Amino acid sequence: MRHTEDDLRTLLDGYGRERPGGEPSADLDAIVRRGRRIRRTRRAAAGGAALACAVAAAVLVGGLPSGPPRADEAVAARPAPAPTPTAPAPELPDGFPVVLGDQRFDLSIIHSRRFEAVGAAGTVTFTPTSFFTGYQVVCDDPGAWVVTEQRLKGGERGGTAGRCGDGVGGHHDRLSAPSGWLEGPQSLKVWVFPADAPVREAAEAVTGCRPAPAARGCDESAQARALRDPEVRRRLSAEVGERQGRWAVGIYDRPAAAGAGPGSGSPAGTGHPVEGASTPAGRRGD
Amino acid sequence: MDDGFAEYVAHRHLRLCRMAYLLARDWGTAEDLVQTALAKAWTVWRRIEGNPDPYVYRIIVNTHASWWRRRWRGEIPAETLPETADPRDAVAEVEDQAALWRAIGALSPRQRAVIVLHYFEGRTLTQVADIIGCSPGAVKSQLGRALTRLRVDPDVQTMTLEEVQR
Description:
The complex is a heterodimer.
Chain A: H1 5-15, H2 28-50, E1 95-100, E2 103-118, E3 120-126, E4 134-139, E5 145-151, E6 157-158, E7 161-163, E8 169-171, E9 186-193, H3 199-206, H4 220-226, H5 230-240, E10 243-253, H6 256-259, E11 274-275
Antiparallel strand pairs in A: 1-2, 2-10, 3-9, 4-8, 4-10, 5-6, 5-7, 5-9, 8-11
Helix pairs in contact in A: 3-4, 3-5
Chain B: H1 5-24, H2 27-43, H3 53-70, H4 90-105, H5 109-120, H6 125-132, H7 136-150, H8 154-165
Helix pairs in contact in B: 1-2, 1-3, 2-3, 3-6, 5-6, 5-7, 6-7, 7-8
Family (chain B): Belongs to the sigma-70 factor family. ECF subfamily.
Domain RNA polymerase sigma-70 region (chain B): 12-73
Keywords (chain B): DNA-binding, Sigma factor, Transcription, Transcription regulation
């Protein structure tokens, strides 16, 4: 059947008013906080670009080499909020506390991306402003499995894996960052699988899910290790497909002038990747 | 910094959310779209001259389009509307409305934005063109295609398009 313009107006007016749970309320503080974050990010990006030709050295997340990504692995749709009207989007902390020996300082968020599908991967590209660049992954479902992968100092790819709620993240230091870290954009690839994804089955089929020590069986830590294998991830991607599920990745760094070069007063590096360290104590709530 | 920003949010938030909902068809997304748009507007608030509405609408429309392009979509909308019962009765009327709502959801983000801005927000097509950032001719073309897909009365459709040409 056909409609008139009045039908269209009436329908839009009707649907635009029918919000379950009442009218949305404006949270001015949250809006302003978000505005400040946008401004900080823009300034940090501008500063990072200006100082990108400094030194190099230091690392990020550790972990075992995990092999090159496969072309048949699903890549996540985007970032964006919102599958459920009532649940707030997963929120990234504003800062990332770092502890290196007796040195303590906070990294500020310089970039973030949100995704709304699990069972796939997303890649975040960012421009580091220091050697201490860190990242944090947050998810709607803390039980979701998260795997990260990026270029390591030796040129190989590696990363970390675990349950999202356990605080998947990490940061580089001056000795762990790959060469050329400050010379241009870098990327981090993240896979998020649903909490009930058959990780154990995929791990046992591909790697045998060898635990260490063997007596512990194919427990969560063994499954997490197996997730670093690209074939395990490929199987899981094919098995679970893409599902709705929100998650986000935040990239954190120091202001360019504070930690970019040697002799800048920045803490000494460890030479080892620091993963999952310095998990922020609290999460922002805007 | 304020300069009327708080008043603008208090006054326009609800309306912006409703408009964003008609684009996104999900209240959570709509509220996030509006918060994102207002946060971006806040960063340049002092540089916005005159009525901030077109600027904020433009951010909402563009942000929605960019999210839509990348988001996961498990549902494949039908190209055409299913035929519904006729002569009309109460049930058929509800089904008609649901079918029209589904058809709006099947429009491209740009076409949906044109429909919502024109029929829900009451903007002229010139204003819609200004918000979306394209020519009135392109808006006219998008509107024509959208109305055809929505099976809106061709007489009324013709009238609308003639109004644009004046």
